Amino acid sequence: xxxxxxxxxxxxxxxxxxxxxxxxxxxxxxxxxxxxxxxxxxxxxxxxxxxxxxxxxxxxxxxxxxxxxxxxxxxxxxxxxxxxxxxxxxxxxxxxxxxxxxxxxxxxxxxxxxxxxxxxxxxxxxxxxxxxxxxxxxxxxxxxxxxxxxxxxxxxxxxxxxxxxxxxxxxxxxxxxxxxxxxxxxxxxxxxxxxxxxxxxxxxxxxxxxxxxxxxxxxxxxxxxxxxxxxxxxxxxxxxxxxxxxxxxxxxxxxxxxxxxxxxxxxxxxxxxxxxxxxxxxxxxxxxxxxxxxxxxxxxxxxxxxxxxxxxxxxxxxxxxxxxxxxxxxxxxxxxxxxxxxxxxxxxxxxxxxxxxxxxxxxxxxxx
Length: 368
Description:
This protein has helices at 51-62, 83-95, 110-122, 136-142, 180-197, 199-213, 217-237, 252-262, 269-286, 292-304, 319-327, 356-366, and strands at residues 5-11, 18-24, 41-47, 68-74, 103-108, 129-133, 147-152, 155-162, 168-171, 340-345, 348-352. By secondary structure, it is of the alpha/beta class. The protein folds into two domains: 5-177, 3-Layer(aba) Sandwich (Rossmann fold); 180-366, Dehydroquinate synthase-like, alpha domain, CATH 1.20.1090. A four-stranded parallel β-sheet has the order 4-3-5-6, sandwiched between helices. The chain has a three-stranded mixed β-sheet with strand order 1-2-9, with helices on one face. It is globular. The model has no long low-confidence stretch (mean pLDDT 95).
């Protein structure tokens, strides 16, 4: 059996601190989970796509520590991130007589991670859970930081809880089976960290994008590690998004509007975020915060990563109006005023408002 090799990034949240293990051959090793709480039951929550690939290996590894390991297989896709699917997890937990020491394992991408975390936060008012992300997007973003939740037809991730995992296990080997479109979607969240926090990392991404697209293990491991380091630094200062953590939503205000406007699952989350970053960069320029060269640079990188850079038309009669209406439902909105994450200097982001007329100009330009 392959010996696991890994690095660890720690999230410092006092008694809720936890490690993020990043490396190869981690998922199937019983030793990976040796320091987790003991329990009579472990429950692996996954989906129909990931289960045939990795559930047997994870269940086998957990069997060395937990007397009973159950498997819950959900339908795959953002369109299933709702109450009905969440209830499948609760049905399984109650049906198996799981108690409050039961530990949940989220095996899959961001949808599985968000729903498993929300189930863990809610079942018996809180049971432990572990993130085992199998997509690049989940490894660099959604599995880290304790945001859990489900979608509502009127807004993305509007129902949920902040609830931290016991551990995050980022096995780079799982990215070998990731479809190319999903890999590109994950790169959107990797790229995001450069403009908001680390221009040297942005330089590195540009220099190593071909290696990332080719799934070079060393390049992917570094991209995951640096992304997690930045997110851990932000979350450690602002766990519940009272201020600084909002910068992690660069591109997301526009992106969430795209997802909700098209219908969840039509565009992948990372695709919407990639395009949303282009729109947010244009807004930053129109606010006088960045120059045209920055917008061109970021747009070119996003396009090279295989992501869309032109927004979809959500309403032929008043496209910008539809975007604005959806963005007013964003979690960062205050008293109906839309708040955008903009770039206001080298590796510096801020949350600001903008006149509707200016936002309309951006939408019209980027959706032309």
